[in-house]
Amino acid sequence: MDTSRIFLIIALVSTGVFLLQFVISIFFGDVDVDVDSDASADTDVSSVFSFKGLIHFLIGFGWTRFLIQGASWVSYIGAFLVGIVFVFILWYLYILAFRLQKIRKPENANQLVGRSGYIYANRGNGNYIIHTERDGAIRELDVVSGSGKKDYATNEKVTIEGYKNNTYYIG
Predict the structure, then answer these.
(1) Which residue windows are transmembrane per the record (predicted)?
(2) What's the pLDDT tens digit per position in 20-71?
(3) Whose CA is closest to 146, among 134, 132, 164?
(4) φ, ψ at 136 (rounded to 5°)
């Protein structure tokens, strides 16, 4: 068996394992994450030297070595370097994925005073529902018109001017 077939087999098997891991993680999830109490992700060297790291290395090494014909030492070094690049791309993608995890940071009710929002619905008698940013996301919030203005238009920009007795007031 010539060496190009060996590297083709390595490339095909590692790509197949990668695709199987990908499909399993899409449909069944991947719960192999270490998070500390301060919500910082654990991305040490062990995440580089893992089964997934080995698979990524073999994908890069196998396909590069198969595509570069010839058995010179330069082709092996090039394939090795491409494999290492694949592993570090995987490691960097893990870091980016951990950054995407959004930790909910509850805000105190008084912290919303001064924040703007948009009228979503009129509930009548000066009561409205607005959309405003709260806890890191756009949320609905029940408010009361404090100025006596009874007819805010839908999508009209308003500012939360006060909070008293579990009620938010807009101007």
Answers:
(1) 6-28, 74-95
(2) 887 887 777 654 544 444 444 444 455 556 788 888 888 888 888 888 877 7
(3) 164
(4) 85, 10
Counting every residue written for the chain, the total comes to 171
Instruction: Evaluate whether 98 touches 112 at the Cβ level (below 8 Å).
Output: no
CB-CB contact of 131 with 120 (8 Å): yes
The amino acid present at 83, given as its one-letter code, is: G
Residues 6+ apart with CB under 8 A from 31: none
Distance CA(127)–CA(158), nearest Å, equals 13
Gyration radius of the chain over CA positions = 28
Phi, psi of 127 (to 5 degrees): -100, 135
d(CA 126, CA 124): 5
Judge residue 12's burial from the number of C-beta atoms within 10 Å of its C-beta, 0-12 exposed, 13-18 middle, 19 or more buried. Answer: middle
What structural domains and CATH numbers belong to the chain?
A: 3-100 (no CATH), 109-170 (2.40.50.140)
Helix H or strand E segment including 128: strand 127-134
Of residues 23 and 132, the one with the higher pLDDT is: 132
Q: How far apart are CA 158 and CA 155, in angstroms?
A: 9
Distances (CA, A) of 45 to 81, 87, 112, 164: 18, 11, 42, 52
